[in-house]
Amino acid sequence: MLCVGLIGYAACNELTDGFLGMRALLPLALSTVWSGMWPAMQCWGTKSLYFPGLPIEQQDVEWWANGYSQWGGFAVLLIGGYAIGYYTWRAR
């Protein structure tokens, strides 16, 4: 819901010449979607059987479901998105 709200706010500002447009809020919206997928990635990436009620933090997970991949993807989306936005703004 937060992602949809951010994209809607950015679209409204693009249409009305507001302060924060798509270039400013789209990386934040995409990184919000990515961080919302973390609990599902941990459940899907468990190597052993997962039973409800067990602490999932100590489960052995696949490489794409560990914390390094989650935070790395978050950083790539956020920093990379703002870098692309900056370079496209500067090239105008």
From TrEMBL:
Top-rank taxon, per record: Bacteria
MF (Gene Ontology): hydrolase activity
Keyword Transmembrane: yes
UniProt keyword list: Hydrolase, Membrane, Transmembrane, Transmembrane helix
Membrane spanning stretches: 71-89
Protein name in the entry: Trehalose and maltose hydrolase
Naturally occurring in which organism (per UniProt): Pseudomonas syringae pv. actinidiae
Taxonomic lineage: Bacteria, Pseudomonadati, Pseudomonadota, Gammaproteobacteria, Pseudomonadales
